[in-house]
Specification:
185 residues; six-stranded mixed β-sheet; 4 helices; two-stranded antiparallel ribbon; 25% helix; tt1808, chain A; alpha+beta
Amino acid sequence: MALPRLKGPFTVDQYQRLGERGVLREDDRVELIAGRVVEMTPIGDRHAACVRRLNRLFARTLFDLAMTDVQNPIVLGEHDAPQPDLVLLKLRADGYPTHPRAADVLLIVEIADSSVADDRDVKLPLYARAGIPEVWLVDLPAERVEVYRAPTAGTYTDTGSASRGDTLTPLHFPNLTISTGDILG
């Protein structure tokens, strides 16, 4: 079914009501960016496999330290509720009865097959403006993981990348070392 033509801008609350009223269905691949309902690209096999690998790795190794959230909304402001591929959240006993906020996020991982430019040009600045401390952009076609840290004035000031054979350590988990091969497959 095609996405209905929606006029915005919408707040996060209005966007959520579109789902409650059945205008948007639970299986619609959409997110709210700058008040607009944006269709997301379909998830291919390689993308899905990468999400599963990271979910398993983080859930297993950080079980008592962080909560792993997969392809669910995070509220970054009044008009932004993107759905990153994977998020590490601060551990909370209540399991987040409402969508997490920017202050709850420890790490966002975006996995890109055909959406590298959108993730880099649209989502990274959004995450930086919200103060997300660390973002990994897994660039599947290039077989590398771009690392973005230290958000300042809407941009990340500490950036780098890791290729196959390199390792990564999440900012908030200095005792965890991950091989890029384990991420890329």
